[in-house]
Amino acid sequence: MELIWMLVLGLLGAGVVAAELDGRGACAWWMGGIPGTPGHDGQPGRDGRGGRKGEKGDSGQPGVPGKRGEVGMSGNEGLPGYRGFPGYPGLKGEPGETAFDYRSAFSVGLVGPVKASGEPIRFAKLFYNEQRDYDELSGKFRCAVPGLYYFNYQLVARGQDTKVALYHGAKPVTFSLDQYQAGDLDQASGSVLLQLVGGDEVWLQVYGEEGPAGVYTENTADSTFTGFLLYPDLRANLLAKHRC
Ligand SMILES: [Ca+2]
C-alpha cells in the first residue's frame, strides 16, 4: 500500500516538474478556470513631492482705494522758514488826526518903558498868543510842548546904557548890551534856540543899575519879544500824553 502511494506521489511530482518546465505553472497544469471579477479600487495614493517653483505671474489690477483714515495728531512745529523778499511799498495813507497839539508860538510887545527892577519884563501888547503859553501878567513864557524853541527880541533902548538878559529858568543864557548915546534911540536885540521840557519858563529881564529909563517903546518904535516851537520832542510828548 505504501508503495502504491509512493508511486502516485512520484507521478504527481513528475507532472509538476513537467508543468513548470513548459512555463504554464501549477494551475495550468490542473485546468483553466473562469476569469475572476475585477477587484475594488485601491486607496488614494499619498501626495507627491512638491514641484519646482513656477515663473512670476503678471501684475494684478490696482485695488479699490480704501476709506479715508482719521485725522492724525498734529506734528511738531517746524523750523523757521527763510526770510522773504521785501514787499512793495504801500500806498500813502490819509493824513491822520493828531492826538496832541504841537503848536506853540507867541509874539508880544511893550506898552511902556521898563526900568531895571530885577523882575521879568511884562509885554502886554499881544500880537499873537493863541495857545496862551505866554503869560502877560508875569511876563514869562511857560513851555507846554517839549521841544526846540526859537526866541527873538528887538528892544528899543533910551536914556541910559541898557543891559538885557534872556532867562531860562533862573539862569540867564543870552545877554545884550546897548551903550546909550544921548538923544538917540538905540536897540538891544538877540536870538537863541533852546531845548525845553514841559514847565520850563523863559523871559526877558533888564539887569544892572536902575536909571532914568531903560527899555523903551513908543508909537513908532516897538520893543518886541517873540518865540515859537521849531521842532516838538515827540517822544517826550507821547510820554507826557500817557501820563495824562
Ligand atoms: Ca548904542
From TrEMBL:
Signal peptide segment: 1-18
Record keyword Repeat present: no
Feature: compositional bias, Basic and acidic residues: 43-58
PROSITE patterns recorded: C1Q
Annotated Gene Ontology cellular component terms: collagen trimer
Region (Disordered): 34-76
Intracellular or extracellular location(s): Secreted, Extracellular space, Extracellular matrix
InterPro entries for the chain: C1q_dom, Collagen, Collagen/C1q_domain, Tumour_necrosis_fac-like_dom
Domain called C1q: residue spans: 99-236
Keyword annotations: Collagen, Extracellular matrix, Secreted, Signal
Entry superkingdom: Eukaryota
UniProt-listed PANTHER family: ADIPONECTIN (PTHR15427:SF20), EMILIN ELASTIN MICROFIBRIL INTERFACE-LOCATED PROTEIN ELASTIN MICROFIBRIL INTERFACER (PTHR15427)
Protein name: Adiponectin, C1Q and collagen domain containing, a
Organism: Paramormyrops kingsleyae
